[in-house]
Amino acid sequence: MFTMMGPERARAWTICLVAALGMTLYGYDAASFNSSYGLKTFVHHFAGPNATKMDPNLLGAANTAFTCGSIIPGYFITPSVSKRFGRRVAIFIGCFLVVIATFLQTFAPNFGTYIAGRLIVGMGHGFVMPTGPCYIAEIAPHAIRGRIMSFWQVSFTIGAFFVYWVAYGLKKADYLGDWQWRTIQILQLVFPLIVGIGILFCPESPRWLVERNRIPEARRIIRKIRAPDEVDAELETIVAAVEYERANINHGDSYLTPYKLIWTDVSVRKRFLLCLVINGGQQVCGNSQLGSFSTLIYQQVFADANTIFLINAIAASFNILFTLNCFWLVDRLGRRFLLITGAAGMAAALLCVASVGVGIKPGPDGHKPYGEGVAIAFLFFVFALFYKPSWGATVWIYTGEVFSQNVRAHAVAMASQWQHVCSAIVSQFFPLFLQNCGFYTFFFFAGINALLCLFTIFFIPESKGVPLEEMDTLFGAKSHTSEQRPLGGDAKGATLAYSGESGDSTPRNEEDKGSGAESVGPSEKNTPSLPSKPS
What we know:
GO terms for molecular function: carbohydrate:proton symporter activity. By secondary structure, the protein is an all-alpha fold. About 70% of the residues lie in helices and about 0% in strands.
């Protein structure tokens, strides 16, 4: 991949991939929890030597603890840390917290301590998950931003893949005692150490540096990640946008300013509400529950625990391939296409799951016939085929790219943490919902996906190929880099300001061409003189 591009673009790819590995923390955590409670040694350690399974209420509490731990820093701490100290610092703090929590979970003497570890893991994710998409969006070239950001979700599947195959290998290792499940927990150290150390060798976001008035440093970094003929134009555009926001929008730099702007700026509020819906939809469409409770679901289908662990491992392998479809499609077909077809396909798959699950009665042992069980597992694979490149990957891409620089850290953090609010609510009742309603549960999730499909058709505008500094015009606001008129927010338009193959951002008319220093700022007096280009 890197041999077909210049050194600057290869460097940008490398930096973004290091940051994207931050999502492996989430993938590993979800899969490790899902795998651990299916092991007898885990159940015996926390529920007693005579227990056969964990209490569904305790499983829901453990999942909710992670979610609540993520919400508090995600909403109130991470945005300010990211804005004041930089994206890299926020990511590093999150990795450090996950390392601490891993030891707490691994050596937990009781389930209360294990839940405390889950809470701290959630806090770590509350730093990494909102910051990673911002950082990648600010480093990636806009023409291939979607492709690069798709690896954020690919990393989730890599983390899950690693866990599920380790768990499958350990399934018959009862002779290890508590180290059967503790091995799964302690290996969680691998990814936060890789990301935490790797991010220290990555540069800071040039957009953040401009916001902090460190323009010479921003120029040096842009020269490393952009072709020589792109450096001045990009830096001028970033400076113009930041200065416009300072002069006309921000009205101060207090802790509360970005939060106020999210609600008082009509265009930003529109983007924020749209992102709340799609981020919430990502968590209530059924995938989050399948990821955390697939073992519980398959226990209603298969009698053999080895079969369940094998299916989870095979699913994790296919999920990597399914998610990579986003890499090929997102900058060709656009964000809207993937979200619409994804939701429609997910609704159809879950409708079939529910129909088969309800229509086929369990045998004398309380499980479905083996053939019907395989059919249900296959339909969950079909669900993942539609989910992974669409509501899995594309939601993160869209959320990370649509906000302007002055509110990006806060808006992305709040929108992405809404995932955890929705997940906490649904995950708390899902085990009991499944226990009491069985496969009727999936009719509910099929209906949600149908609604998400309709919502996208009528309300989500296309953002493919639009530079970050021009996103404001897409949502009906004045451009922060030129005097062009707002382009409106017609949700049905494929790309309102930009068109072309593979994310080409060629303006459609002469009016949109201004990108030079004389036209990028709101006025001569508001745009500082850029440092002269080094000879």
